[in-house]
Amino acid sequence: MATSLIELVENFPAARVVLVGDFMLDKYIFGSTSRVSPEAPIPVLRYQREEYRLGGAGFVMAALGTLGAKVKVVGVVGADQAGEELRKRLVEAGANVDGLIVASDRPTVAKTRLLGSSEDRSPQQMIRLDVEETGAIAGKIADELLQKAFEAMREADLLCLEDYDKGVLPPAVCAKLIEMAQQRKLPVLIDPARLKDYGKYTGATALKMNLPEARICTGESSHETAATTLLSKLNLEAVIVTLNDDGAYLATSDGERALLSSRPRQVADATGAGDTVLAMLCMARAAGASWADAVALGNVAAGLEVERLGCVPILPSEIIHDLMMEHHEESGKERTIATLLPELQRHRAAGRKIVFTNGCFDLIHLGHVKYFQFARSQGDILVVGVNTDGSISRLKGPKRPVVNESDRVGVLEELESIDYLIRFDEDTPLKLIEAIKPDVLVKGEDYSKSQVVGADFVEAQGGCVVLAPLVNGRSTSSLIQKILEAHT
């Protein structure tokens, strides 16, 4: 499954997304907390630095843009400095901000977080200051927002609604947006607010929510019954309920029910995980993914997001790398040339240096372990070519190898320094080297460079040849001799 997901990410289109919702500005003030205030029993934060980030629908925009979407944003900001900063940040992230409306009677939604740290700990959030007006937009502002959205939808692939219940998506506005999208046959993907009544989302394509939200709006305790209730009540195509460490549950109108698990993560901060899932669902569906594949990618993206502090958009290359590691764990290290080359191409695209070495590795000993460790230190990915039994017999005689190739490969699979293993039956690895095109070719220092098969080819391709130091007295031949002497 991981390889098909990788191909989806590699082929993400520049999806044209209209994003309507509550755009927010997040401000982080960092400082040190080494003493308590004499005025009150509170820590004193000594200012060090500050930074701004996109929050709410703004972070969804950043996540979409990072994944390659072309995003037109539609929302409301205040006539204030925070609004100017928010607009600036959205433009820097690649958004078309023609749909942002300035309202003189409400502030830009802004959240300021104070984070303190001492010498022995990382920054911890101390307090958050919110500036907002959550009353529903109406009248001229609502009409203008709908007009902006209508214009943006003329050239769009889908409509995305990010609702934080800050007043931009009241029932009448939300229903009209869905109606306009239906008229243009645009899918509508929604991250709903935490409300008791989801009636305003009726007719959308899909809702993505967490389990507490699903329980509140349906009164159901289980994600299965909540999802089924929402499907029928709101006339949806799909409902996705995120379940934190347990992954996400998918229910569709055509009867599909699936719990898509996610692998364990070291959680640093769960902020932004749901927004990341929404962005990934949009991109995956625009790429033609099934709902199951879209949700699986959402799990991966959310998993990477929670490993970061704060809201940090996830790059496609990071998702691909994570999927490749998952595929590696599932499939082991051995590859054929047909399966190896696409994976190496992806590693190269991420800037990783490929190292290649080869050998018989008949009886694994300390010399081999040190050799692989040295080879791995010359780059980022180590590929090891392993002679088949037939090629060893031709090279070393009919009594070799002592250990068959399946067992040899099985032992090498357990060495941490090796990333990939591939068998070859030719007398030399030249064809393999020409196919892999390694950045670094490694052989033992018992060879001279002129004796290393493929050296000229690798150097002609811009790579280099490195001779690895040997461990004195450690070789397969000497080990075999000692075994024979011990049994005579």
Would you summarize the structure shown here?
The chain is an alpha/beta fold.
Q: Could you name the ranges where pLDDT drops below 50 across 5 or more consecutive residues?
A: none
Shape, per Cα inertia axes: elongated
**pLDDT average, as an integer?**
91
Number of distinct beta strands: 18
The helix/strand class is: alpha/beta
Taken as a percent bin, the fraction of beta residues is: 25-35%
Number of H/I helices: 17
Largest sheet: 9 strands, mixed
Description:
This protein has helices spanning 2-10, 57-66, 81-92, 139-152, 171-183, 211-218, 223-234, 273-286, 291-306, 316-331, 337-349, 366-376, 389-396, 405-412, 430-436, 455-460, 476-486, and strands spanning 16-21, 23-36, 43-56, 70-78, 96-103, 109-117, 124-131, 158-162, 188-191, 206-210, 238-242, 248-252, 257-260, 354-359, 381-387, 420-424, 440-444, 464-468. By secondary structure, it is of the alpha/beta class. The strands form three sheets. Strands 5-4-1-8-9-10-11-12-13 form a nine-stranded mixed beta sheet, with helices on both faces. α1 runs antiparallel to α10 (316-331), α2 (57-66) packs across α8 (273-286) and α6 crosses α7. The protein is elongated, with a radius of gyration of 29 Å. The model has no long low-confidence stretch (mean pLDDT 91).
